[in-house]
Write a structure and sequence with these properties.
Leucine-rich repeat, LRR (right-handed beta-alpha superhelix), two-stranded antiparallel ribbon, 13 strands, 35% helix, repeat, Leu-rich_rpt, Leucine rich repeat containing 34, LRR_dom_sf
Length: 454
């Protein structure tokens, strides 16, 4: 059934982005009489077309096509549907969603009881669409997931969405990835986390956050007990003192609820990794740590290897695109061989590791029964490396879906080819066929399931 209208008086959003062609709204033929309980609309595509005519708005053929498919799912009795209107879908002609298009779409979905997810990534909704997204959050009480990544939303749009979440009690997972909300928008989201007690996962990667907002998030997360996963990838930082890791490290000492932390492209160096490792001696909740694409070297692996001897919580570590070299790989392998029995997945993709270090990691898998996933592509393979990983796969110790290499033989010699598996292969894109949420391509999210959608 529809939710009642008692929440319709929530605090309103600023009116700097008015709905296009506003005016008296004619009552649709299928609308209930005033004061009666509303009934679900039978056809989303018909309602969408009707609203476009009513508001003198051009029908977006791509939205109409997707709504037809959703209508069929609703006819089958399905609920909990995610409406996927991704603007980077190459399998069909795409008319990207603008802010005005999103206004009509939001009105179509406003009280629909079947839709609980909305994916409009890679469109053009901008701050205009962000205004209508904020209004939708105030009126749609079924949405648990919204993906707005790469939609040209700026600081003002970020502010509108963050303020709408002050009173939202439904949304669990929000992706703002790639929208340049900057430091100003980031501060509004940090303030929101002081109030909101429902949101479990927030992605603000590639949003041009500044140091001020990173510090604000670190401060707020010492108190927020609801957020289980947060992505703060690629902030705009200045200086060489690893300041972001100092504050996030302090947060990890105090926070005992966060399960997933992404700090890719933070310019983390060995000193910064030490701050994080010092915190991980005390933290007993973090299960997924992503420090990929940083400036960590083999010296930093001394700190990580040491903390893994006592930490029994970490299950997934992403060290991809650092410079670990053989010494760093050997440090990790020694700990994984003799001490740690909690880590399930390790990614060392493109870490300047050669045969000696890669073989050492493969040897640790023979004695460590818990480590099930390892990703090594982009390093320097020699024949010993190829034989070692081919042997692990052949004996069944390493499942083909749990690694990013596959052995093949040419003229009696074993080589390794790359396969499309990883911790988060579909972070920025999804495949045109198959299951976008499959374990093999998104092992990190499968092993640490925070949030129901990608």
């Amino acid at each position: 059934m529809w939710r009642g209208s008692e929440k319709a008086t929530r605090a309103g959003s600023p009116t700097s982005f008015p709905a296009p062609n506003q005016g008296p709204t004619p009552t649709p033929a299928w609308a209930p009489a005033s004061g009666s309980a509303p009934e679900p609309i039978e056809s989303l595509q018909e309602y969408y077309t009707h609203l476009c005519i009513e508001k003198s708005q051009k029908v977006n053929s791509f939205i109409l096509h997707i709504l037809k498919g959703v209508d069929k799912e609703i006819e089958k009795g399905l609920k909990g549907i995610t409406l996927n209107i991704a603007g980077n879908n190459p399998s069909m002609p795409v008319e990207r969603v603008t802010g005005d298009d999103f206004f009509i779409l939001s009105k179509t979905l406003e009280k629909n009881p079947y839709i609980n997810g909305l994916d409009v990534r890679y469109n053009l909704i901008s701050d205009v669409g962000a205004y209508h997204a904020a209004k939708l959050l105030q009126k749609q009480y079924n949405l648990i997931y919204i993906n707005l990544m790469f939609n040209d939303i700026g600081p003002k749009g970020g502010e509108l969405i963050a303020k709408a979440l002050h009173k939202d009690t439904t949304l669990k997972y929000l992706r703002m990835t790639g929208n340049k909300i900057e430091n100003k928008g980031g501060m509004f989201f940090a303030a929101m986390l002081q109030i909101n007690s429902t949101l479990e996962k927030l992605d603000l990667g590639d949003c041009d956050l500044g140091m001020q907002s990173v510090i604000a998030f670190a401060t707020v997360l010492t108190q927020n007990q609801t957020i289980k996963g947060i992505t703060l990838n690629r902030p705009i930082l200045y200086g060489e003192q690893d300041e972001s890791t100092v504050h996030l490290g302090h947060m990890l000492k105090e926070n005992h609820w966060l399960a997933e932390l992404h700090m890719s492209k933070h310019d983390v160096k060995n000193c910064g990794l030490k701050h994080l490792c010092d915190a991980l001696y005390l933290n007993r909740s973090l299960r997924y740590l992503d420090v990929s694409c940083n400036k960590i070297t083999h010296d930093g692996m001394v700190f990580l290897a040491a903390v893994l001897k006592s930490n029994t919580t970490l299950e997934v570590i992403d060290l991809s695109f650092n410079r670990l070299e053989n010494a760093g790989a050997k440090n990790l392998s020694e700990t994984l061989t003799s001490h740690n029995r909690s880590l399930k997945a390790l990614s060392v993709v493109s870490c300047s590791i050669e045969g000696e270090g890669l073989v050492a990691l493969s040897q640790s898998m023979k004695t460590n029964p818990i480590l099930s996933n390892i990703y090594i592509w982009g390093n320097k393979f020699d024949e010993a490396t190829c034989m070692a990983y081919a042997g692990l796969i052949q004996m069944g110790r390493l499942k083909p879906d749990n690694t990013d290499v596959e052995p093949f033989v040419v003229d009696g010699h074993v080589y390794l080819a790359e396969v499309s598996n990883g911790l988060k292969k579909h972070y920025y894109w999804t495949p045109t066929y198959g299951n976008a949420l499959c374990h093999s391509s998104n092992a990190g999210f499968s092993l640490v399931p925070v949030g129901q959608q990608l």
